[in-house]
Amino acid sequence: MSLVSAAMQRIKPSATIAISNKARVLKAEGRDIIALSAGEPDFETPDNVKEAAIKAIRDGQTRYTAVDGIPELKAAIVAKFKRENGLTYKPSQITVGTGGKQVLFNALLATVDPGDEVIIPAPYWVSYPDIVNFAGGTPVAVETTLEDNFKLRPAALEAAITPKTKWLIFNSPSNPSGAAYSHDELKALTDVLVKYPHVWILTDDMYEHLVYDDFQFVTPAQVEPSLYDRTLTMNGVSKAYCMTGWRIGYAGGPEELIKAMGTLQSQSTSNPSSIAQWAAVEALNGPQDFIAENNKSFKERRDLVVSMLNQASGLTCPKPEGAFYVYPSCAGVIGKKTASGKVITDDEVFATELLDAEGVAVVHGSAFGLGPAFRISYATATKDLEEACLRIQRFCGSLR
Ligand SMILES: Cc1ncc(COP(=O)(O)O)c(C=O)c1O
Questions:
Q1: What's the predicted TM-score (pTM) here?
Q2: What is the pLDDT at residue 18?
Q3: What span, in angstroms and rounded, lies between the C-alpha atoms of 242 and 208?
Q4: How far is CA 192 from the centre of its chain?
Q5: What would the mean pLDDT of 268-283 be, rounded to a whole number?
Q6: Mean pLDDT value across residues 210-221
Q7: Which DSSP symbol is given to 337?
Q8: Ligand 1 centroid to 368 CA: how many Å?
Q9: Tell me: the pLDDT tens digits for 16-30?
Q10: What are the CA-CA distances from residue 186 to residues 17, 162, 212, 218, 264 (Å)?
């Protein structure tokens, strides 16, 4: 009899975490490694946020709190949704978890039964299908194309909907492609969803603030208010506020769903860290101008990386609207051989050989459900990015 449960056998470790760990080990061994694999900003958490956390400790905010968030944080989230997304939620429609990941986990575990299908546009964030699998549901990946800049077409969405569809997971800007949907592009999708009242929408807006070139972010319930009653709008402070380690994510949605998610959390982790919650109150209510400052750097880095990768032989890299990722296709190097005679049969071999030969860690596209491609996180110092892109150019140029 197996020790681990059947549910555990349906999931695997996160590929992005595995590759980041491998890069860390090689670095510790003294190798010259540039890791472009991690999904976190390289900027510091703002000082006012750190001070709010220190104050919370001094004020004795060190006890259990309400399971799904302190009233002050829920109020800050209600105000954020109103201010930035034009969405009206009551505090009873808000839930706070230990990172956006727990919020997603709660939502799917609380709603997905065996046989339920969850539509996930590919390339997708690695955790979506695994969480659906863990819940006993069936992930239905819908592939997008490089030509469509990795955006889901309305007809492809409609073709994937069946009577068993429970959720569409929507993520804009996207991890891993950086693709973000304009108002019109999103409206074309919500027009389809309006026709299928049994389908719920889980929108992962984690990268909302990380958009460039005057791109206007929009979220499904804002674009199509009639979807409000079946949409869970999820977000968090990890990326825009440079708070990945603090572990605060949140969502707004229908009360019945929010209540079920809180019940699940009450039987697992209980409340997110009391101190991190107070820090998140300051992040959401405090000054926001540092985001535009950070975005200036991100945009410059995106432009640098896209331009340098497009000069690498066999790579094609679209310029995405947001997040801090690019997702170049490596179709042009498949079938070629490295200097040591190894054939690049797929994107995983490409990533492994690139790490071996040049010490650059990237994540293969097949981990995100769409290859041959790879993901680069450009949330790294510009000089390292430049060096990494030169190494990638050299590696691609060496393939025969
Ligand atoms: C698309 C997306 N959603 C959710 C998360 C989870 O964020 P958190 O660190 O708050 O759990 C991430 C983090 O990488 C992400 O990329």
A1: 0.97
A2: 78
A3: 13
A4: 24
A5: 98
A6: 98
A7: B
A8: 14
A9: 777 888 888 999 999
A10: 30, 21, 18, 8, 31
CA of 206 to the centre of ligand 1 (A): 6
Q: Relative to the CA of 323, which ligand 1 atom is closest?
A: 16
Measure 235 CA to ligand 1 centroid, in angstroms: 9
With a 6 A CB cut-off, is 322 part of the ligand 1 pocket?
Answer: no
| pLDDT for the residue numbered 15 | 77
Task: Give the ligand 1 atom nearest the CA of 125.
Answer: 1
Burial 207-222 (b: 16+ CB within 10 A, else e): bbbbbbeeeebbbbbb
Do the Cβ atoms of 366 and 347 come closer than 8 Å?
yes
Task: Tell me how crowded residue 345 is: count the other CB atoms within 10 A of its CB.
Answer: 11
Q: Are 232 and 251 in contact (CB under 8 A)?
A: yes
DSSP 321: S
- 386 close to 304: Cβ distance less than 8 angstroms: yes
Per-residue pLDDT tens digits for 304-329: 999 999 999 999 999 999 999 999 99
103 lines ligand 1 (CB under 6 A): no
Query: Does ligand 1 come within 6 angstroms of the Cβ of 128?
Result: no
Q: What is the CB neighbour count within 10 angstroms for residue 79?
A: 12
**DSSP codes, 48-98:** HHHHHHHHHHHTT--S---TT--HHHHHHHHHHHHHHH-----GGGEEEES
For residue 343, report the distance from its CA to the centre of ligand 1, in Å. Answer: 34
Cis peptide before 372 (omega within 30 of 0): yes
Type of residue found at 328: P
Edge-to-edge strands, sheet with 231-236: 94-97, 249-252, 231-236, 200-204, 165-171, 117-122, 138-143
Q: How far is the CA of 362 from the centre of ligand 1 (A)?
A: 18
Tokens for 141?
């990946």
Sign of the Cα torsion 184, 186, 188, 193 reads: negative
Do the strands 138-143 and 165-171 form a parallel or antiparallel pair, or are they unpaired?
unpaired
| 282, 285, 289, 295: CA torsion to nearest 10 | 80
CB 228 within 8 A of CB 63: no
Q: Residue 311: its pLDDT value, please?
A: 98
